[in-house]
Amino acid sequence: MSDEKMTSTEIELTDAEHDVFDRVRREQGLADVAEAIEWLVRTRLRKGIEHITGRRRGPRLVASGGKRQ
Q1: Mean pLDDT lowest for which of 11-15, 41-45, 58-62?
Q2: 3-state DSSP: the chain helix, strand, coil percent, rounded to 5?
Q3: I want to staple 17 with a disulfide (CB 3.0 to 4.6 A). Which of 13, 24, 46, 65 is the partner?
């Protein structure tokens, strides 16, 4: 992972949007609305990748010999 810090962007939210993000924050036990937005983005990215690849996570190394039965 890189040592560079993630950039941030400020966006204006309507009251309705803020209420939705605050509800997500409470349901997920997050500290603030920014964390709720990040959680939603990460969740959506995971689902999108799963849809494209058919897998939940990235590729894994395969152990030689396969599973023992």
Answers
A1: 58-62
A2: 50, 0, 50
A3: 13
In a domain, 10, yes or no: no
Boundaries of domain holding 30: 15-53
pTM above 0.70, yes or no: no
Compute the distance between CA of residue 65 and CA of residue 69 in angstroms, rounded to an integer.
11
| Residue 4 within any structural domain of the chain | no
Per the domain annotation, does 64 fall within a domain?
Answer: no
The separation between the first and the last C-alpha atoms of the chain, rounded to the nearest angstrom, is: 37
What contacts 28, CB < 8 A, 6 or more positions away?
36, 39
Q: What are the backbone angles phi and psi of residue 45, rounded to the nearest 5°? A: -65, -45
Q: Could you give the number of structural domains in the chain?
A: 1
